[in-house]
């Protein structure tokens, strides 16, 4: 308790340095705070009818090989601003029912200005063996931050990481966007991708291996420090972090000699910390998710997992970044995981601990 109290007290200490013109810039370790946003809802959080709706067809999910182009679809949105956009995400079945296992599904939207694909949702299929062809489950995700991208013809892409689908039984998904008119509280100036394990993963599963010698997840090309240029006029910033753990590694944490990991990284609790402009932050993120209230399925559906639950969207986390972090129009962000030593020698070994990581910084005015 004393150690924790000391840590809290230290979080309010300020160190200062001076620029050439004498201006004092504070170096703080309270520049990051939990934005306290729900990752998804089980019912639409908006009580009034939407102004417009845009719906997709049902998509039959099949395995996407690492070298294969992602399947895409295009939806046409009305032009103009919306105060809020809610995406209704429907999990369903193809054929006689959904496939058996809990597998990763990712949905991306193209930023037409840059050509890049941004992850707009990550969800995990249920253990579907006990469900029939009528089974469906709906969830609601607030995607208001992406409303500037949802104008005119918009391209989406999707990924499914399971081998269990066939022509008689498979998972499916569909989306419906609910748009609400009004003046937005704030405008998104830019969306800056920070981390993306999907396109340069080293685990064979679109993720980054954790603790494998020679394949450090904290290396520059993975979760290393990122330098960001911030345009004038930005009044606030939020970091959207989607990090889910997978694998059943029995490695060790060198700084926790009395702790024995339990199937790292899927079934074991972990955390991450921030450095902003090189200063360790008080904020600490938890990579764990309680499945105590998950709905009945087959398999290990009610076991707690690393930020996800079978048959549900991922537990996306939002963090507010204080604009005081901006120094001369720039800042640096680094997200760190505790040091872990894997029991495997290869990053793509079966069962290796790994994290699928997507992190984007949203700039507002």
Written description of the protein model:
The protein is mainly β. It has two domains: 2-37 and 187-364, Jelly Rolls (Sandwich), CATH 2.60.120.230; 52-180, Jelly Rolls (Sandwich), CATH 2.60.120.230. The protein is built from two helices and 24 strands. Strands 3, 13, 14, 16, 22 and 24 form a six-stranded antiparallel β-sheet that branches. Strands 4, 5, 7, 10 and 12 form a five-stranded antiparallel β-sheet that branches. Mean pLDDT is 92; it is low at 1-24.
Which range does the strand content fall in?
35-45%
Total domains, how many?
A: 2
Q: What letter string, H or E per element, gives the SSE order? A: HEEEEEEEEEEEEEHEEEEEEEEEEE
Task: Estimate the helix proportion, in percent.
Answer: under 10%
For the record, the CATH architecture of the largest domain stands as: Sandwich
Sheet having the most strands: 6 strands, antiparallel
End-to-end distance: 40 Å
Q: In terms of structural class, how would the helical and strand content be classed? A: mainly beta
Comma- or semicolon-separated keywords:
Jelly Rolls, globular, mainly beta, 2 helices, 6-stranded antiparallel β-sheet, 5-stranded antiparallel β-sheet, 24 strands, 2 domains, 365 residues, disordered N terminus
């Amino acid at each position: 308790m004393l150690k924790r109290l000391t840590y809290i007290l230290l979080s309010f200490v300020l160190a200062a340095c001076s620029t050439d013109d004498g201006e004092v810039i504070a170096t703080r370790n309270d520049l990051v705070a939990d934005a306290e946003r729900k990752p998804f809802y089980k019912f639409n959080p908006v009580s009034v009818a939407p102004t417009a709706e845009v719906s997709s067809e049902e998509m039959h999910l099949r395995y996407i090989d690492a070298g294969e182009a992602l399947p895409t679809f295009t939806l046409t949105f009305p032009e103009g601003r919306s105060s809020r956009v809610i995406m209704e995400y429907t999990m369903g079945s193809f054929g006689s029912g959904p496939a058996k296992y809990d597998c990763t599904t990712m949905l991306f939207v193209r930023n037409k200005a840059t050509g890049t694909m941004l992850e707009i949702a990550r969800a995990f299929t249920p253990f579907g063996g006990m469900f029939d062809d009528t089974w469906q489950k709906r969830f609601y995700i607030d995607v208001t931050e992406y409303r500037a991208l949802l104008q005119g013809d918009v391209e989406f892409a999707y990924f499914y990481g399971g081998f269990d689908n066939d022509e008689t039984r498979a998972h499916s998904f569909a989306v419906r966007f609910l748009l609400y008119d009004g003046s937005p509280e704030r405008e998104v100036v830019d969306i800056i991708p920070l981390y993306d394990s999907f396109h340069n993963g080293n685990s064979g599963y679109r993720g980054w291996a954790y603790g494998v010698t020679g394949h450090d997840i904290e290396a520059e090309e993975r979760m290393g420090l990122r330098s960001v240029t911030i345009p004038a006029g930005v009044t606030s910033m939020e970091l959207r972090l989607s990090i889910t753990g997978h694998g059943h590694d029995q490695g060790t944490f060198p700084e926790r000699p009395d702790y024995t990991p339990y199937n790292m990284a899927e079934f074991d609790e972990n955390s991450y910390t921030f450095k902003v402009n090189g200063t360790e932050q008080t904020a600490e993120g938890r990579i764990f998710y309680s499945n105590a209230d998950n709905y009945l399925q087959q398999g290990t559906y009610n076991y707690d997992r690393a930020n996800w639950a079978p048959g549900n969207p991922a537990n996306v986390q939002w963090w507010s970044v204080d604009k005081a972090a901006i120094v001369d129009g720039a800042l640096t962000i680094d997200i760190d995981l505790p040091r872990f030593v894997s029991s495997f020698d290869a990053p793509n070994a079966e069962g290796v601990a790994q994290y699928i990581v997507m992190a984007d910084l949203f700039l507002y005015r």
